[in-house]
Design a protein that fits this description.
Number of strands of chain B: 0
Distance between the termini of chain B: 55 Å
Strand content of chain A: under 5%
Shape of chain A: globular
Structural class of chain B: mainly alpha
Strand content of chain B: under 5%
Number of domains of chain A: 1
Low-confidence stretches of chain B: 141-160
Largest sheet of chain A: none
CATH class of chain B: Mainly Alpha
Largest sheet of chain B: none
CATH architecture of chain B: Alpha Horseshoe
Number of helices of chain A: 11
Mean pLDDT of chain B: 83
Distance between the termini of chain A: 39 Å
CATH superfamily of chain B: Tetratricopeptide repeat domain
Radius of gyration of chain B: 19 Å
Shape of chain B: elongated
Structural class of chain A: mainly alpha
Largest interface: A-B, 69 and 54 residues
Low-confidence stretches of chain A: 1-6, 12-25, 103-124, 134-142, 167-206
Oligomer: heterodimer
Order of helices and strands of chain B: HHHHHHHH
């Protein structure tokens, strides 16, 4: 894996970085990349238009079970957006994102960050409307847009569930709704966790920006 | 008014992105004859970072050295993040080199700052090299068994198969 990543680096740069920084580095064992590390990398790659590399790193991030937070997704979506053209993959990524950023996952773990749903109901609806409009005049994107709309709707539904679970009385109602138990967060988020999630940077910007790019290339 | 009071005051200014206020409180602290500690400088540097005052951060760091306060990992990380926030890649590299010369082992925040610094001039190759280095450090731990991460189930992302990891 490191070999493949390293292949992207030119011989010259390899020499420079080795001389300047890498060889003298003696980081303590146990220091490992976290979501912030990946976010910073995505930002660098966005600037250079190297989005396929960003996608590779996203795979690696998932494989190593580094918790993906909304900032990382935002940086990754921006990288895809700046790369241009490959919007099919961006739609797929968006679907992936809506699935991942559900409820509050994990907690307490070193590498696992609490992920929350940041997009309010109104904003989700706005995105949906935007996409629905786009479908009407752009048949080519219809299937992808429909899937993305479904994902956005799902996202909104889960947000409502997460909000319901944060109040004790409604928590019971949510847990008795056992039809899709596997989709529930393993533990109901506390009010504090919900507040922390709400305080986090919203991915709404990225989603809306992305839709604009996909469906209104001229704009 | 002791060092903890002033440091907390400066930290509050840092959070509010009021670096000038932070610097003026630092001046007041010195006027009161209160000796700053490394933590004071770390929060002062963080105030510079949040306000995008990389040059100011370098001055603060120089002042710290002038006062004979030994920098630690935290102050170096704050300086690196301040440089990164202002896109001062060269200064960040120099600070990193100085840090290593003093035998201070970097942590993940150090690397995150260096990666941030790579963005200003789009140095993605250097960023990947740094990242690879960090991965090597982390793999040294994984042999001894890290805490099991909680999985988030997700649908397969077909397009990702095209990108080799």
């Amino acid at each position: 894996m490191l070999g493949t990543l390293y292949d992207h680096i030119s011989e010259e740069t390899r020499g420079i970085t080795r001389g300047i920084e890498c060889n003298r580095t003696q980081a303590a064992p146990g220091v490992s990349p976290n979501a912030i590390t990946y976010t910073a990398l995505f930002a660098v790659l966005e600037r250079c238009g190297r989005w396929p590399l960003a996608m590779s790193l996203y795979c690696e991030m998932r494989r190593d079970h580094v918790g993906v937070d909304s900032r990382a997704y935002r940086a990754l979506l921006r990288a895809c957006e700046r790369g241009g053209g490959e919007w099919h993959e961006a739609v797929e990524l968006l679907r992936h994102m809506t699935h991942t950023l559900r409820g509050v996952g994990g907690g307490g773990g070193d590498g696992e960050m609490e992920v929350g749903l940041e997009v309010g109901f109104g904003e989700v609806r706005e995105v949906q409307e935007e996409a629905e409009e786009a479908v009407q005049w752009r048949g080519e994107a219809a299937a992808e847009a429909e899937a993305a709309i479904a994902a956005a709707a799902e996202w909104g539904r889960r947000r409502a569930q997460a909000a319901a679970a944060s109040t004790p009385s409604m928590m019971r109602a949510a847990s008795t709704d056992g039809a899709d138990d596997s989709l529930h967060p393993s533990a109901p988020p506390s009010a504090a966790a919900a507040a922390a999630a709400a305080a986090e940077v919203s991915v709404e910007y990225a989603v809306r920006h992305f839709y604009r790019r996909v469906f209104e290339p001229g704009a | 008014m002791d060092v903890v009071t002033f440091t907390t005051l400066i930290a509050a200014c840092a959070r509010g992105r009021r670096w000038q206020l932070a610097v003026s409180f630092f001046g007041e602290m010195r006027a009161h004859g209160v000796a700053p500690n490394p933590r004071t400088f770390a929060v002062l540097l963080s105030a510079c970072e949040r306000s995008g005052q990389g040059q100011q951060a370098l001055e603060v760091f120089a002042e710290m050295q002038g006062l004979g306060v030994a920098p630690n990992l935290r102050t170096y990380n704050a300086l690196l993040h301040a440089c990164a926030a202002s896109g001062m890649r060269r200064e960040a590299s120099a600070a990193f080199a100085a840090m290593q010369a003093e035998g201070i082992a970097p942590d993940v925040r150090t690397y995150n700052a260096l990666l941030r610094a790579c963005r200003s001039r789009g140095e993605w190759e250097a960023a990947l090299a740094l990242f690879s280095q960090l991965k090597v450090c982390s793999s040294r731990l994984s042999l001894s068994g890290s805490s099991p991460a909680i999985h988030v189930s997700c649908p397969p992302l077909a397009c990702l198969a095209r990108y080799p990891v």
